[in-house]
């Protein structure tokens, strides 16, 4: 703790107050004194003291009565009783009434210092517990989920209902709708919230890398495996594992996943020891898994193991009422991060945003607002600051699948099929881009 510990000494003897005052000042504490209970209560009502030393035998209100009065004020100070040896029975009663400890007169300086150090440790521990409670409360209040529309109220009601169970959940929805935020909300409001939420982006990893990532590996399991490494399932013990883009997992890995979900055991790559882990699984996908099951590209048994509860996150075009709220949130977010004063947005610009289809959903809206704050004049966001041309609002292509395919081809052609340059432009990694090329069966001869 950075705060200096404060001590109040309550004793009617000048010599006791003076000696204790000097001892504690020398040890670096903030110290005040009171010659009777009345003065002590006045000081306690005016300021908080971490530790209060109270003499039992005092004229007027004695130490026992003062102890009870302090406790009645719901005061969190640590109270130590000072007593003559003959009054030890009274001191024991004081412990029952809420005192932290007692010390007998005459004082042994070492005993007194040890007692104060122990009390200080307890204060530090209580302070750390308060910090932990604050962190937990912040986890529970997932402030990034913005929305008051009927569609989002339905989603949040589902989150509330499913959070307290251990059931597997599939979160479905288009790219950019905030599926990972929903997963965090479920975990943060679950009984597992004190343990990790471990995320794995399945679509960004090759089959061999995904296997090592999920199950871990032993030293020497493959070239470059210089040490033992825990996998994500092991890290998620007692917590939650979030498998994003579950639809991209290969058939072989689907078999492995099914076995792990059924047994809650696995073996590291290159190892032979079976490892157990108690985890909850939440998945996310922007594809129709049921259709993939019918087509034979996703295992039916794995689908039903994962799909105990399904939460569909609506696209932004189906929650138009939330656009003003989201816009205000992103303006505040980026003004703070860029150290700019709050910037208003023109009503006509909000209206235009509400008319836009947002194929990229919330992620696209966020990027638009960030760009407007960067390039705008800083006084007001207007329509000219937003890339919302009529041609982009009304498109002959309605399918997000086809729209993504067309955009990827355009970027690949722009950069002469240089994968690194194209991936940077698309703001994805190379593996994800390779997976997209394979998914859409794209070739360098394609022109769109």
Brief write-up:
The chain has 448 residues and is α/β, with parallel strands linked by helices. It has helices at 14-26, 37-46, 63-72, 88-96, 109-140, 150-163, 179-188, 207-215, 232-235, 251-263, 289-295, 300-306, 323-337, 347-355, 361-375, 390-393, 400-414, 419-426, 430-439; strands spanning 6-10, 30-34, 51-55, 78-84, 101-105, 169-172, 197-201, 216-217, 229-230, 240-244, 265-267, 274-276, 280-285, 309-312.
Describe the protein in words:
By secondary structure, this protein is an alpha/beta fold. The chain folds into four domains: 6-137, Response regulator (Rossmann fold, 3-Layer(aba) Sandwich); 150-312, Rossmann fold; 316-393, Helicase, Ruva Protein, domain 3 (Orthogonal Bundle); 400-439, Arc Repressor Mutant, subunit A (Orthogonal Bundle). It is built from 19 helices and 14 strands. It has helices at 14-26, 37-46, 63-72, 88-96, 109-140, 150-163, 179-188, 207-215, 232-235, 251-263, 289-295, 300-306, 323-337, 347-355, 361-375, 390-393, 400-414, 419-426, 430-439, and strands at 6-10, 30-34, 51-55, 78-84, 101-105, 169-172, 197-201, 216-217, 229-230, 240-244, 265-267, 274-276, 280-285, 309-312. A five-stranded parallel beta sheet has the order 2-1-3-4-5, with helices on both faces. A five-stranded parallel beta sheet has the order 7-10-13-6-14. The protein has a two-stranded antiparallel ribbon with strand order 8-9. Strand 3, helix 3 and strand 4 (78-84) form a beta-alpha-beta unit. The longest helix is centred in the first third of the chain and has 32 residues, at 109-140. The two termini are 63 Å apart.
């Amino acid at each position: 703790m950075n705060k200096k510990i404060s001590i109040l000494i309550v004793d009617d003897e000048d010599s006791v107050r003076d000696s204790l005052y000097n001892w504690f000042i020398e040890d670096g504490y903030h110290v005040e004194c009171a010659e009777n209970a009345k003065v002590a209560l006045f000081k306690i009502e005016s300021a908080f003291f971490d530790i209060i030393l109270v003499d039992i035998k005092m004229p007027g209100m004695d130490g026992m009565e003062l102890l009870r009065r302090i406790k009645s004020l719901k005061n969190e100070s640590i109270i130590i009783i000072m007593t003559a040896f003959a009054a030890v029975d009274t001191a024991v009663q004081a412990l029952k009434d809420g005192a932290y400890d007692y010390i007998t007169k005459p004082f042994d300086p070492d005993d007194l210092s040890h007692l104060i150090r122990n009390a200080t440790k307890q204060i530090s521990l209580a302070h750390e517990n308060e910090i932990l409670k604050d962190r937990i409360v912040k986890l529970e209040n997932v402030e990034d989920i913005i929305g008051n529309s009927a569609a989002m109220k339905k989603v949040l009601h589902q989150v509330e209902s499913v959070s307290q169970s251990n059931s597997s959940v599939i979160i479905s929805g288009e790219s950019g709708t905030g599926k990972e935020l929903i997963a965090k909300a479920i975990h943060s409001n679950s009984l597992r919230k004190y343990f990790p939420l471990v995320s794995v982006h399945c679509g960004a990893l090759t089959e061999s890398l995904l296997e090592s990532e999920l199950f871990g590996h032993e030293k020497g399991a493959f070239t470059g495996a210089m040490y033992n490494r825990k996998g994500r399932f092991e890290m998620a013990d007692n917590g939650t594992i979030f498998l994003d883009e579950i639809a991209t997992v290969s058939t072989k890995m689907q078999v492995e996943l099914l076995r792990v979900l059924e047994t809650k055991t696995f073996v590291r790559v290159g190892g032979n020891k079976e490892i157990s882990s108690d985890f909850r699984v939440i998945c996310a996908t922007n594809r129709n898994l049921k259709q993939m099951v019918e087509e034979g590209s996703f295992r039916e048994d794995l689908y039903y193991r994962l799909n105990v509860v399904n939460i569909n996150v609506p696209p932004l075009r189906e929650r138009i009422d939330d656009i003003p709220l989201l816009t205000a949130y992103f303006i505040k977010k980026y003004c703070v991060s860029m150290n700019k004063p709050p910037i208003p947005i023109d009503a006509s610009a909000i209206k235009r945003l509400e008319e836009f289809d947002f194929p990229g959903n919330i992620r696209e809206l966020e990027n638009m607002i960030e760009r407007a704050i960067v390039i705008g004049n800083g006084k007001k966001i207007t329509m000219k600051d937003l890339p919302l041309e009529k041609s982009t609002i009304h498109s002959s292509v309605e399918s997000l699948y086809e729209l993504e395919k067309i955009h990827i081809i355009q970027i690949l052609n722009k950069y002469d099929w240089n994968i690194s340059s194209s991936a940077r432009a698309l703001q994805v990694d190379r593996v994800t881009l390779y997976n997209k090329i394979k998914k859409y069966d794209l070739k360098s001869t394609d022109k769109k």
